[in-house]
Amino acid sequence: MIRIIADSACDLPAELVAQYGIVIMPMHISFGEATYDDQTEISTEAFYERLVGGREIPTTSYPAIGRYQSVVDEELAAGNQVLIITIAQPLSGCYDSLRLLFADYPPDKVAVFNSQSATLGEGAIVLAAARLAAGGYDFEQLKAALPGLIARSQGYGAINNLTYLAKGGRISATAATVATALNIKPIINVCQDGSLEVAQKVRGMAKALAWLAARVQQDGLDFRSTTLFVSYIMQEESARRLLEQLQQEMQLGEVIFSQIGPTVGTHLGPGCVALFYLKPE
Question: How far apart are CA 268 and CA 208, in angstroms?
Answer without folding.
Answer: 16
